[in-house]
Amino acid sequence: MPDSAQQAETLLEFPCPFPIKIMGLANAALAQTVLDVVLRHAPDYDGATMEMRTSSGGKYLSLTCTINATSKTQLDALYRELSSHPLVKVVL
Q1: Are 64 and 82 within 8 A, CB to CB?
Q2: Can you tell me the distance from the alpha carbon of 56 to that of 61, in angstroms, rounded to the nearest whole number?
Q3: What's 23's DSSP letter?
Q4: Angle between helices 72-84 and 30-41 in degrees, nearest 10
Q5: In Å, what is the CA distance from 90 to each residue of 29, 84, 85?
Q6: How far apart are CA 74 and CA 17, in angstroms?
């Protein structure tokens, strides 16, 4: 796809920092699973920067990963893989 066509689909200018918020049930495997998926799509992501918050009732965990996004294709693939994982409830 030519750059101009890709730019028409998004207002983002790549590369750029892009936060992705992932929510799921508080499960010991969620953070590692999300990290593994993110690293497949953004190998330069530093897992130490992942932000984690537990819901007030402790049932859910929210993770925020700010990656260096390089293309809309990269973001689409990352969102698809995260959204389809059984431990993940919501990806924003």
Answers
A1: no
A2: 10
A3: E
A4: 150
A5: 16, 10, 10
A6: 13
Q: Which domains does the chain have, with CATH numbers?
A: 10-91 (3.30.70.260)
What contacts 69, CB < 8 A, 6 or more positions away? 12, 14, 15, 16, 17, 18, 42, 75
pLDDT tens figures, 6-28: 445 678 899 999 999 999 999 98
Can you tell me which residue has the tokens 């390089």? 70
Strand-pairing partners, residue 22, are: 63, 91
The pTM score is 0.87
77's enclosing H/E stretch is helix 72-84
**Amino acid in position 17:** P
How far is Cα 27 from Cα 33, in angstroms, rounded to an integer?
10
The whole-angstrom separation of Cα 70 and Cα 74 is 7
For residue 16, give the amino acid letter.
Answer: C
